[in-house]
Structures are given as C-alpha cells and as structure tokens.
Structure prediction request, 660 residues.
Amino acid sequence: MEIELTRRAETVNELLARYGVKFGIYKDNEFKEQLFPFDTIPRIIKKEEFAYLEKGLKQRVMALNCFIRDIYGEKKIVRDGVVPEEFVYISSGYLAPCDGVVPPKGIYTHIAGIDLVQGKDGSWYVLEDNLRVPSGASYPMIAREICRKSSPDTFETYHVEDNRDYAKLLRWTMDYVNTGGHTVILTPGRYNAAYFEHSYFAEKTGAHLATGRELVVEDDYLYFVDYSGKREKVGAVYRRISDEYLDPMTFNEESVIGIPHIYDVYRKGHVALLNAPGNGVADDKGIYYFVPKMVRYYLGEEPVLQNAPTYLPYYEEDMRYVLEHFDELVLKDVAEAGGYGVVFADRMTAAQKEDFIALLKREPRRFIAQEVIDFMDIDILENARRTPRKADLRAFVLMVDEPIVWKSGLTRFSRDPDSFIVNSSQGGGFKDTWVLSQ
Amino acid sequence: MGIISVENLDRLFWLGRYSERVYTSARLFADSFDRMIDMDMDNYAAFCRQLDIPNIYSSREDFCNRYISDENDPNSIYSNLMRAYDNAIVLRNEIGSEPITYIQLSVYDMKKSRVSRAPLVGLQKVEDNILAFWGIVDDMIENENIRNVIKIGKRIERLDLYGRLQMNRESIVREVHRLAGRIARTNLHYDEKNLKELKKLAEEDQIDYDRVVALADTLRKD
Prediction:
C-alpha cells in the first residue's frame, strides 16, 4: 500500500528547507551549507525486529563501555590475550592522558551511533561503532515533526513510535552524569558540518550552546561566562568537538577551539564530558573485529548482533585469506572515517591492486578487509518513481543507568545507483526510520 | 535561555540592526524603482546619495541588479540579509527555530527575486518575512532581555537610516522616544549622555540630522 506521506514529498522538502535542515561541507577550501536530501519513503522496522536489534545494541554498547573502562583501567582484556596490545596502544584513538581517569558514574559511551546494514536475507550486520561524536539523530527527529505536519493521515494509519523524544533522552543522559551546574553543548562553531544539529539539540534539550571562547576554567571548575562577566558553573558538557581539540594543554596544543585545562577539571570529577575522551580506542576499525569477543569476555554472553565478516591482515591466516580472495573484498583504512579510505578491490586496476597489496603487506595493521555484504536495497523516490538504493542505519544508544536504544535512527542512502557510500559528505541522503509500535 | 554570552548579546543586537536595514532599504528601493520605470531613470544616483552609499552603478539596470542581489556589493540588500542570516543562524539557542525560519525564507525569496524582471514581488515577500520575524520575536521569545536587545538594534538602525534620509521631524521624534523607552530595559551598555542629547535634539524645531546619525551610531558602548 502506498504511504500517503510519499505524495507530500514536495511539501515535506519545502518545510525542511524552511527550517534550514542543512549540513556544512568544505569544497575547494570553501564552506558551503547544503540541504540534506530527504526521501519520504521511510525505512520501516517491525516491533519484533526492533526488539531484536535493541537487545543486540544494548549488549554491544555495554561491552564497549566495559572495554574502554578496562583499557584505561586494569587492562585485563589485553593481559588475557583477547585483544592484542598492538591493536590498542598504537590506535590513534588511544589517549595516554586518559589512563586511570574514571568519568562520572563510570560511563564512557553516553551517546553511541552504531552503523548497521541489512543483508538481502534479512540479517543485520554491524558495520561500525561510533563512540566519539556520532552525529545525525537531529535529522530524523525534525523530519518526523515535518512529516507529521505534512501528512497527519499517515500517522493515523500507521502506528509508529514517536522519535521526537530524543531530546528528552539526551537531556536525561546529560543530567544523569552532571556533577552540579549548567549543561552545555560545546560546538566548534557555525562552520562545523553538524552545526545545525548542535544548535537544534541545544534548543530542544534546553542546554546552553557554547563555543570554547565562552567557557573558562578557574580553580578546578568549569564556568560559562555571560555578557556581564558573571561566571556560571558547568556540570556537564556534551562536546561536539574531537578529543584532540578539546584541551590544548593536554591534547593538541594548537587547538584554538578547545578550553585550556578542561581535562584537568574532568580528571578531578568536577565536570562530566560526553562522550568521554579516549573513546576512539574502541571505535577504531581494527578494534571492531574484536567486539564480539568483548561481548563474550565482559558479559559472558553470545553476541546478538554480528559483525560483517571481517579479516585482519595483521594475522597471518587472515592475510592469506585476503590475498586469495582479494577481488571479493572491501578494504578499509582504519584511520579514515566518513566513507573515505574505503576501496572495493574489484574496482581497482591491475596496477592499483599491485600497489595496494604492497602497501597492505608493509602496513597490515592499517587495514581491515570485509566481505562485501549484499545490502538489502531500499526504495527512494526519484522523479516521483520508486527506485532501489543502498542504505544503512545508524542506531543511537544512550547510556544512563542502563543503555537505552532510541526507537528510530538515521537511515542514510546512496543517491548514486552504483555506490555503496551513503555518507552525506559524499552526496548521500536520509530517510526517517519508523519503528512500529504494534 | 538564562545565560547569554557577550558574543551572542552582540549578535542579537546586530540581528536587529541588519533585519531593519533589509526591511527599510527594500521599502526605499521599491519607491525608487517605481520612479525609475518611466519617470526618472537616473533616480538611483539620488537614492545612493540619500543613503550615503557609494554610487558604483553604471546604469539603472546595473543598480537594480546589483543593489538587490550582488553578494559582492557590501551595501546590497542581499549582503545585509546574509549578515542578518549569519547572526540568526547562531542564535537558535537564544531565539528558537521558528523565528529563524523567517530569516531563512527571506534568503530564499531574495534569491528568487534576483532573476525576476519584477523584483518588487520577491522583495515584498522579503519585507513580509521580516515583519513576521519581528512579530514572532515579540510573540515567542520569552526572555525579555533578548527581545529588547533585538529591538534596540532595530531602533538604532532605523534612527540611523531615518537620519540619513532626513525623514520628517515626527518620524525622528517617534523613533527617539521608542529607543529611549526601551534601551534602559536592556542589559546593554549605552552612553547616557548621548541618549540625553538625542532626546534634546528631538525637541528642537529643526532636526540636526547629521548629529542624530552620529549619536545613534555611538549610543551603544561595547
């Protein structure tokens, strides 16, 4: 049955433009704002299917949180040989200053964005864990608001979980670890790709949106400075800037968007930072391989969700497999993100293959190889006609006393029929994700 | 929001100023454009003189195109609108998404009027959006200080423009009174001596327009 909403695509897109639902992109060193293309055909997840995903996602994020606590604490998983130390300590996401620092309530992964794809047989696979500053929840949230406005009949007909509670969940997540004081969303500023999201979350959660220039550290506490010079204590910072730029005194000394000494305040337990600095050690593409092992190790359970079949050329046996099946694999540079550093071996020329294999042999730790999953295509409307495209799902898991899985998610699709790359920075669009309530 | 940084206080003020500049200059342009259709083709020179902007335009057509929409002309309506937009877009936390939509809509309408042979139709929509923006500022922004700072920006800009245009005495007097009545209700730093002098000037039979402009522009202290 055709969903009535799809006949309102023009209205929906007009309203999205009106509300400035955009993302920023740098092209030829110039900042440009672009509307994020939206497709009105939703991804629909049935109640029982979501219950399965929910169980798996909670389990996965719990295990990842245990892993980070362990790595910056006792390091048992390394000592027990489950994860080789080479994969931990040379990861660019591992930050030595975080060693021995325990965040408020022991939570590291406050907001996790887990990227999944669904195979043609209906099985779900985790492609990536994003535990630093995963973005994207604002888009389906505002899209839902606009879709409900544009086609109320649709939501009368279908019983869809209301995803507009994300702001409430996010506020709860921030308040849960707040050490006493205001709650702030820290943005690098207007020219960040996700600035719309930062400002939208601030508005919807009632937190203060601030740049590094508006926050100061004094006497081991963090303060927001108002126009009259008055200082207001800050107890939680949902920072939307990368670890390395957070504090020039501890991390990258050239950072001009961070706050000097904020990490000292955090270390003393006087402010909560969401997500915790140092989380990058767990969402490294190399570490991803070990997540099912983490689930077994920390939780004593079998993983509910599976990884895409992955090989680590670092292991001799895996290297052999990769070389033998090279053309069937996708290779990913562990240091890259946003859809960059991803190469499909069957699309390389003979010379490129030769060069790549030489590089792989020289730097086996730098790459992972994965089987190309035959994604289940999802229809989009193109020139008012349904046409299939590759799509993924970013599910959001927020951590309070236990993990909460947001009953929605960001479905991203490739607009190029020949591409698997769904990232907005590379031309992808998005859809709302409906979780049916009955 | 309860706490406002010094940067955002400044942006609120300039949002008020630029939104007023767009609105008033669009209205003035409309008057001038009408005259240029079939009465006074070179009226744009007088327009530039009145507004004290450099007459860099080579013809009526050049003026009509560039003054409306040239992003490289700092005095164009488009440039001023983009300055309003640049301030608004970083104030979502202070003013909310709804008011910003009217500035956003103005940008879209302005872009449409760029290619039109009847630019006043698009500009009318821009004016409507700015009026709606001010209406929603009044209606939806709960924080009185935020409302007042935007309005002070608007009042100062209007007084500045009216002074430059040597508007009638009643208009100047009205704007001085509106400004004086509101500025004390904000947390902006302002020069009380300048305000006193402005009020005095408004009592004179002959308005000293240059002085009005100078005082309006220096009223707010950073």
Summary: The mean pLDDT of chain B is 92. The two ends of chain B are 22 Å apart (CA to CA). The CA atoms of residues 18 and 84 of chain B lie 5 Å apart.
